[in-house]
Amino acid sequence: MLIRSFPAGAFGTNCYAVASGPGAECVVVDPGMDAVEPLARMLADDGLKPVAVVLTHGHLDHTFSVLPVCDGYDIPAYLHPLDSGMLSDPARWHGPQLAPLITGVRLPDPSEVKSLDDGEVLSLAGVDLTVRHAPGHTQGSVMFSLDLGEAPGLLAGDVLFAGSVGRVDLPGGSWDDMLRSLRDVVLQLDDETVVLPGHGPATTIGRERATNPYLAEAASAPKGRGL
């Protein structure tokens, strides 16, 4: 398995390319702000040919460049339907920090974006991505499980970071949902799973289970009463 990435734009959103090896087809994950040119250079370095864009959620720092990337390579995009409103009406779903970016941004028509369903396996570019719906950061946040060869992998978007988790204070965010996703999705994964997050460095489930205070809170959260 070949994984390449770079931090895109002012928010340092990790944009990934996932392929079976050099010179192969690939899947692009979360092309954010100012990602078009650095993505093209990264793909050229390994001779990769994109066949699809998959989005972990609908926030602009992860979707900003999806339309030019999809148009430029004539490929489809995939997004969970609960986040499709972020493409059709981004101003409603983004806080003041991202508001200046909304004017003039061109995003795909949601009707042209393929839906992601929890538990489905996307077989793209010789890579199998298992969709794991994990709301909390947004209603339609997903993670993608994949086989890295030597260990399981997880493209975690903004659900889980090294030492932290995604914010829940923007429209559509929910701390109860985040705790449930951490408890019922993240903590069910093997400790050896390599976490490739939407921001910051890679980590492992085992490291986060042992050190991440938010995972500790999720592990002790009682079931029921909204959880």
From TrEMBL:
InterPro entries: MBL_Glyoxalase_II (IPR051453), Metallo-B-lactamas (IPR001279), RibonucZ/Hydroxyglut_hydro (IPR036866). It comes from the Bacteria. Residues 12-199 form the Metallo-beta-lactamase domain. The keyword Ubl conjugation does not apply. The keyword ATP-binding does not apply. It comes from Blastococcus saxobsidens. This is MBL fold metallo-hydrolase. Keywords: Hydrolase, Metal-binding, Zinc. One of its GO terms (molecular function) is metal ion binding. Its cofactor is Zn(2+).
